[in-house]
Specification:
With 176 residues, this protein is an alpha+beta fold. It has 4 helices and 9 strands; from the N terminus they run βαβββαβββαβαβ. A hairpin with an 8-residue loop joins strand 2 and strand 3. The protein is elongated, with a radius of gyration of 21 Å. The protein starts with a strand and ends in a 5-residue tail after the last strand.
Length: 176
């Protein structure tokens, strides 16, 4: 990937502009360090291509264990993410303080294209919108969760199992 460096005046605003400008891309990864002294990464791509010799962003879900060992899962999956997904970004922004390094595929973009994209990003008006409250709910009730934990503790005490990663899904319905 080639790199193009430029200066920004407001890191937080620029990140908001990135999220707004690229909101319709197929793949978006925003890694926010939550530490103002460290860099944040923002990767975007419209395809799922992977280059093993370049940056790759993605995830592996807990259920991928079923592909590695002879295990099964029968939990309800309302989100239905794939078990794994990775991509190599078309453009990657490394944002630190007031400097941004923009990495890009030279087969897809030129430095002039990147400069034009950056100009468009910086012109994005970020308007604070009123967001309606989202009701996030657990898939398992608190009482059922506590009952399940007691059951799992009994299995540990009996020696049936020695380790547990008990998780549950939180969800919201009718939300864009």
């Amino acid at each position: 990937m080639e790199v193009f460096k430029h200066i920004i005046s407001d890191k937080s605003l620029f990140e908001h502009q990135l999220l707004t400008y690229f909101k319709n891309k197929k793949n978006i990864f925003f890694l926010n360090s939550n530490d103002s002294l460290k860099a944040n990464l923002f990767a975007i791509s419209d395809d799922d291509q992977q280059n093993e010799k370049d940056w790759q962003f993605g995830f592996i879900s807990y259920d991928y264990k079923n592909q590695i060992e002879h295990l099964t899962s029968s939990n309800f999956d309302g989100i239905q993410f794939p078990e794994k997904h990775f991509f190599t970004p078309d453009i990657l922004f490394k944002i630190k303080d007031n400097e941004v390094e923009t990495f890009y595929k030279p087969t897809t973009y030129t430095e002039q294209h990147i400069d034009e994209i950056l100009t468009k990003i910086k012109s994005v008006q970020c308007i604070e919108e009123d967001v309606e409250e989202i009701n996030v709910l657990p898939r398992v009730s608190k009482q059922d969760y506590l009952d399940n934990v007691k059951l799992l503790k009994q299995h540990i005490q009996l020696g049936d199992i020695y380790e547990v990663n008990y998780c549950q899904e939180y969800f919201a319905e009718n939300v864009d």
